[in-house]
Amino acid sequence: MLKVIKKGQGINKTEKRLIELANNAFIGLWSYPNVYSDEGYSKNKSGKEVCDLLVVFENNVIIFSDKDIKFHEGIDVSVAWKRWFKKSVTESATQLYGAEKFLKETKGRLFLDKECKHPFPIELEKNMRFFLVAVTSNSAAPASKYFGRIAEGSSGTFMNIFLSDVKETLDLPFSVGDINPNKTFVHVLDEVSLQLLLTELDTISDFVAYLKEKERVIRSGYLGLSPGEDDTLGAYLSGHGEIVDKKIVPDNTFVQIAEHEWEGLKKSSKYNYYKALKKGSVFWDETIQRFSDSILNATVGLGMENDFLSHEETVRQLASESRRSRYYLSHAFLDKFKQVPTNRRSSRIVQSIDEEGKFYIFLFFPKDELLSYEKYRMERFSCIQMYALAAKYKYNEIKKLIIIATESKDSDGRSEDVVYCKFDKPLTKEERVLAKIAMKDYNVLTDFIPKPKDSFQISPTVNNEKKIGRNDPCYCGSGKKFKKCHG
Q1: Do 253 and 283 touch, CB atoms closer than 8 A?
Q2: pLDDT digits (tens, 9 = 90+) for 221-258
Q3: Which residue, 318, 237, 320, 312, is CA-closest to 283?
Q4: Tens-digit pLDDT profile for residues 248-294
Q5: In this predicted structure, what is the pLDDT of residue 447?
Q6: Which residues, 6 or more positions from 406, have their beta carbon under 8 angstroms from its beta carbon?
Q7: Which end of the chain is more exposed for a tag (fewer CB within 10 A), N or C?
Q8: Half-sphere exposure of 110 (CA within 13 A, CB side)
């Protein structure tokens, strides 16, 4: 049975900033602030905080430690840096390693509240990969001033000297390296870097992919120096997800990322491409957000009898899509939605461009005026089952199928269902018979968009319908002007 999930809200201003950025990037269903262990509960009736923010998605665990330590600018910078670094970075790393150890070695002892009444809702398995992130504050302004003596226009981010460990960077103001090469890599992000990464890489799959690539090139020795996190990100996006191409790095050498790599990228057509991807995929983000909020608030309607994990697994399929894939799926959905006449059942099946064998069906199912809404929802759910069988029968390569169903356009009301089907074995003889009947009698699944081979155009779909004006009512039936809705 689905229950309301109450999450922590953060204790101070910097924690609240971290939570807001993480919720926007990871939609909120997979990020949990201020989680606790039951250590010490039997004695003090209060659990021990494990970390400031825990993100769990698929087999990835991201642990955040947030420190709000003042940087004393009135004293010698080398002294101020050492004091600030020990409290902001070294103590964070210690907390992160401790949290990682606890999560790896224990099970069922993680809670959302310090009273240890509400267990953490997502199970952590043994094969999960851990990422550690130390978030710092109050260093950007003094760093910008410090580096500004050498070159104008410093962003205030840390210089990354990955060949140095924690002891060596203590003597290098506003520089960070590989905290402990013998342990899990710690990503040290100041307030500027945090904002940048969680704004630019604002899907969980894109953010994790960046962390993986960064760790790969650092721990392999391919990347030695970077002027800052912003320039590392610039190299990553410029390289289409690869910071350093190992094929061009001679043996026993390392690469240094060029200064102003990020500023150069922002002026390029490639960055305009990324911005267009975001703008054109807002619909997909909003869809995930609606489903996530319904799960957290236990207002899903159909499926209330199912537990949190079954709902989370379903919506996770939508959230695992990269920004590029979200753009493609958004346009496939909205283009079909606009084409389907009012009071007409229709669908479209598309393949994810991120994962082989993963397909989506977008089903538009009109409501008969004589039906109650409850009866309509049940009929729509039966239709979803019919489409799932027909899809597997028609496209045997389907391994995962996600069906999103809603009313046709101009409907008086609107609701959405999302259903996730895993096909790990062939259909039975009875299922094949039912699928053939559905395809013959109900004309199921005639609109299929093949997966693009390489790339696709980022532009509105061209059709012969009358162009909608910016101030005209939106075609989705929301009642809003087009420019303020799907425009």
Answers
A1: no
A2: 899 999 999 999 999 999 989 998 877 777 777 889 98
A3: 318
A4: 777 777 889 988 899 999 999 999 999 999 999 999 999 999 999 99
A5: 61
A6: 363, 364, 365, 414, 415, 416, 417
A7: N
A8: 24
> Which parts of the chain have pLDDT scores under 70?
149-154, 446-487
Q: In whole angstroms, give the CA distance from residue 243 to residue 211.
A: 11
| pLDDT in the model for residue 473 | 55
As a three-state string, the secondary structure of the chain is CCCCCCCCCCCCHHHHHHHHHHHHHHCCCCEEEEEEECCCHHHHCCCEEEEEEEEEECCEEEEEEECCCCCCCCCCHHHHHHHHHHHHHHHHHHHHHHHHHHHHHCCCCEECCCCCCCECCCCCCCCCEEEEEEECCCCHHHHHHHHHCCCCCCCCCCEEECCCCHHHHCCCCCEECCCCCCCCCEEEECHHHHHHHHHHCCCHHHHHHHHHHHHHHHHCCCEEEECCHHHHHHHHHHCCCCCCCHHHCCCCCCEECCCCHHHHHHCCHHHHHHHHHHHCCHHHHHHHHHHHHHHHCCCCCCCCCCCHHHHHHHHHHHHCCCHHHHHHHHHHHHHHHHHCCCCCCEEEEEECCCCCCEEEEEEECCCCCCCCHHHHHHHHHHHHHHHHHHHHHHCCCCCEEEEEEECCCCCCCCCEEEEEEECCCCCCHHHHHHHHHHHHHHCCCCCEECCCCCCCCCCCCCCCCCCCCCCCECCCCCCCEHHHCCC
The pLDDT value recorded for residue 476 is 40
Q: What is the pTM of this model?
A: 0.87
The residue among 111, 122, 127, 134 whose CA lies nearest residue 55 is 122
Q: What is the rounded distance in angstroms from the CA atom of residue 284 to the CA atom of residue 322? A: 11
pLDDT for position 37: 95
